[in-house]
Write a structure and sequence with these properties.
Strand content: 5-15%
Number of strands: 13
Strand order of the largest sheet: 4-5-13-10-11-12
Oligomer: single chain
Structural class: alpha/beta
Number of helices: 16
Radius of gyration: 20 Å
């Protein structure tokens, strides 16, 4: 049962019955370094027998508890989930004989390219949207302020797809190097796209994120896959970890390790939170943008890294990689990533650009319709082959369908 939120930095708490709480109450324009994490008590509720993961694991989710505290019945919550989260599915997990033979380990693949909008990003966003729709139904929201997101990849596409499905206005803040064809797809979904060049007056960091934060300050709703911007994104993402655990159990398989690609960090944090500490979770970034690994090294002898956010998590100066969907110059959810890696005995990996491209080639050859970014978890396995045991069972998530 989810009881509420606690800031991982200042320990401020917020009850789960409070509506529209996106960020730590102590966060300010001058002090952005706060993030709310979920407070859970007791054992996980048993799953509901349903192919939609947001129905299946609904009773474990924060929005479900919020709605129940405000009087929505179980049937009403299921009906709302079926309406708002239509199109989501439990994605397959299977052993890839091709990749296992190639890499010399037992390689299992969860294929999120078959998920709504082609990646796992919608899992993070749908929990925000379910909370909004519940608040709307309860009369807490009476007008639809625009949703806002900073992204030019899978997160933007998932956000625009979900917003379009429920008729909610959305603004997408993108970098100057966004692909034109991708921008046209956002236009077709009704998104208002803002290209964000770097200004001389900008502080360090992503200019699209700066413009996004300005829009939120002006009243837009943060429809974000970064926990510090909207903590609700860390709720629905946990369904990936629960699915992995259940699918491995039903297959009679004990996973030894999961390797997850990291951009902003919510993906790995959510998988680790749902999967639990018994399975080692390693993260991977490309050598051209590896702020998490750098922060891990800086925090090695620091007792309370959350109190030294600015010192430890520094913006990467010039992000570059063909895995362009993980070029976040900061790992925004680094504290949650640290927590799941430390609990499970994992660590950050850094893949060479050669390994990033080889992973994509191998994934395509093995039959996965995946982008370079989406196959980056496999790049982590390739980069760490020297430490892998021959019969180790390793899982990766292919997330991000090819744009070709």
């Amino acid at each position: 049962m989810i009881e509420g939120w606690r800031c991982a930095v200042c320990s401020a708490t917020v009850g789960i019955d409070e509506p529209l709480v996106w960020q730590c109450p102590n966060r300010t324009v001058d002090d952005l370094h706060h993030v709310l994490h979920l407070l859970a008590t007791g054992d996980d509720a048993p799953p509901i027998d349903d192919p939609n993961p947001f129905v299946r694991y609904g009773p474990r989710l924060a929005w479900w508890t919020f709605a129940g505290r405000h009087g929505m019945t179980v049937d009403e919550r299921i009906d709302m989930t079926r309406a708002v989260a239509a199109g989501f599915s439990v994605t397959p997990l299977g052993r890839s004989a091709t990749l296992s033979d190639e890499l010399g380990v037992e390689l299992w693949v969860k294929d999120e390219t078959r998920q709504l909008a082609g990646s796992q990003k919608g899992r993070h966003l749908i929990s925000i949207l379910l909370h909004l729709r519940a608040a709307e139904r309860l009369g807490i929201i009476t007008d639809r302020r625009p949703l806002a997101i900073a992204s030019c990849g899978n997160a933007a596409m998932a956000a625009a797809t979900l917003a379009h499905a429920v008729g909610w206005p959305i603004e997408v803040f993108v970098p100057t190097w966004m692909d034109e064809a991708f921008g046209r797809r956002l236009d077709e979904l009704g998104a208002v796209t803002h290209v964000c060049p770097r200004l001389d007056t900008d502080p360090p960091g992503d200019p699209a994120m700066h413009r996004f934060r300005a829009a939120v300050a002006a009243g837009s709703i943060p429809f974000s896959v970064q926990g510090p911007e909207n903590a609700w994104c860390l709720d629905g993402g946990r369904t990936m970890g629960w699915e992995l655990a259940d699918q491995a159990h039903h297959a009679g398989v004990t996973l030894d390790r999961v390797v997850v690609q990291v951009g902003g960090g919510a993906f790995a944090a959510s998988v680790g939170s749902g999967l639990g500490p018994k399975v080692r979770l390693d993260t991977v970034q490309a050598e051209g943008c590896a702020p998490l690994a750098s922060a891990w090294e800086r925090a090695r002898h620091v007792a309370a890294p959350a109190e030294r956010w600015t010192e430890i998590m520094r913006p990467w100066p010039d992000p570059s990689s063909s895995a362009d969907g993980i070029l976040d110059d900061e790992t925004y959810d680094w504290l949650a990533d640290f927590a799941v890696m430390r609990a499970s005995g994992g660590r950050p990996l850094v893949a060479s650009e050669a390994d990033v491209n080889r992973a994509h080639q191998l994934a395509i050859a093995a039959g996965f319709d995946v982008s370079v970014t989406g196959a980056a978890g496999l790049a982590g396995v390739i980069s760490d082959r020297a430490s892998l045991r021959r019969h180790e069972r390793v899982a990766v998530v292919m997330s991000g369908a090819s744009r070709a």
